[in-house]
Amino acid sequence: MRVAAAWADDYRYILGVQLRARLAPEPPRELLEGDRVPILLLPGIYESWYYLEPLARLLNGRGHPVVAVPELGRNVSGLAESGRVVAARLRVAGTRDLVVLGHSKGGLVGKELMLGRLGDRVRGMVTINTPFAGSTRARWFPGGPVRALSDRDLAIRDLSRRRDADHRIVSIYAAFDPHVPGGSFLAGARNVRVDAVGHFRIVGHPDVRRAVLDAVARFDTAGT
Predict the structure, then answer these.
(1) Residue 147's CB: how many other CB atoms inside 10 A?
(2) CA distances (Å), 180 to each of 31, 60, 206, 220, in order?
(3) SS3 41
(4) In this predicted model, what pLDDT tens digit does every residue of 19-61 receive, in sequence order?
(5) Residues 6+ apart with CB under 8 A from 157
(6) Rounded to an integer, what distance in angstroms lies between the CA atom of residue 169 and that of residue 219?
(7) For residues 196 and 201, what is the distance between their CA atoms, to the nearest angstrom?
(8) Are 3 and 187 in contact, with CB atoms under 8 Å apart?
């Protein structure tokens, strides 16, 4: 019953976020201000930057400038293409020495970025409910972009085998994620399991907020 109720709450939450996101296609300019390590937002599939807005505000309030990648659109492209889009944005913006904050597929795109030519610009990455090994549930989803997140997808398997960046990743995940039933544990990373159920609403969970702040602070201090 708890899982069913949490799943329903999850969809109500993300529907509300999607509706409000239409009024905020890009982050307000004040989020670009700050003198601490920059944060790069990489939301999940079918999400805009606005999904991560609560955490963006929280981190910006601690002095971190926040950068988004509007060119990702709804984040439905393949991982390699999405990684190139993000890299192009960083080249134009000149952003360096940053921390990635990714949700779900955004964490996969972030890992692709970390393993690419601009990987040295990324100090570390904090992810929330990212299917690093793919999702068994994605196999049966009617939309092709979601099926590409299946545990059987070749790009997912290839990315999973490439572990050079894993030690710079903090993976935060729910005790049960209905979209990623296999969980988001990543060997070699710092893993933080939160006593919560859900895939979307978890971004507002107090333990997730604390874990994100702690992880970003560690990366910030490590670079000084």
Answers:
(1) 15
(2) 31, 29, 21, 29
(3) strand
(4) 777 767 778 889 999 999 999 999 999 999 989 999 999 999 9
(5) 134, 151
(6) 10
(7) 9
(8) no
d(CA 89, CA 189): 26
In tens, the pLDDT along 188-222 reads 999 999 998 899 989 999 999 999 999 999 999 87
Taking alpha carbons only, the member of 79, 87, 86 closest to residue 145 is 79
Specify the pTM.
0.93
Q: Read out DSSP for 130-198?
A: --TT-BSGGGG-SSHHHHTTBTT-HHHHHHHH--TTGGGEEEEEEEE-TT-TT----TTSEEEEEEEE-
Q: Which two tokens stand for residue 141?
A: 């989803």
Structural domains of the chain, with CATH = 1-221 (3.40.50.1820)
Joined tokens for residue 87: 């890299």
Task: Name the helix (H) or strand (E) containing 90.
Answer: helix 79-93
Residue 50 structure tokens: 């606005």
